Amino acid sequence: MESDKVNHILMMLSSKIPAGSIPSVRTRLENIDISESEILALHSQMKDPLLSILLSIFIGSLGIDRFYIGDVGLGIGKLLTAGGCGIWWLIDIFLIVDATKRKNLETLSYYLR
């Protein structure tokens, strides 16, 4: 893939994947033939870290933040324990952004195999 297309795609994805994974994603994108429309479709499937932190702050004790990123088991656990009596909810406020970015990287890695 052309380097300006790769740079454009990385700018779109940079806020949704971990910063440390950008060099490996760049290498994969350079070595794969994927259309920009496929990348846009993939981008629309990725979860927004900002929305996940807002969900975590306001209704995270119900596990909605974990359901949003696809961690159904953890979402059920938070729901049944009322956010671990508030402790799990508080910890998740700090962890949910990284968890969202890791989930997005897993989704991206699946499509770039």
Q: Would you mind describing this structure in some detail?
A:
- The chain crosses the membrane at residues 50-69, 75-97.
- Keywords: Membrane, Transmembrane, Transmembrane helix.
- One of its GO terms (cellular component) is membrane.
- It is a multi-pass membrane protein.
- It holds the Pfam family TM2.
- This protein has 113 residues and is mainly α.
- It has one domain (3-111).
- 75% of the residues lie in helices and 0% in strands.
- The protein has 8 helices and no strands.
- Helix 4 packs antiparallel against helix 8.
- The protein is elongated.
- The chain starts with a helix and ends with a helix.
- The model has no long low-confidence stretch (mean pLDDT 91).
Helix/strand order, N-terminal first: HHHHHHHH
- Number of structural units classed as domains: 1
Shape: elongated
**Cα-atom radius of gyration:** 16 Å
Number of helices: 8
- Helix share, percent: over 70%
Poorly predicted runs are: none
The major sheet is characterized as: none
According to DSSP, the number of beta strands is 0
Beta-strand residue fraction:
under 5%
What is the mean predicted local confidence, pLDDT?
91
Structural class: mainly alpha
What is the end-to-end distance?
A: 15 Å
Organism: Prevotella melaninogenica DNF00666
Protein name: Membrane protein
GO cellular component, one term: membrane
Pfam family, one: TM2
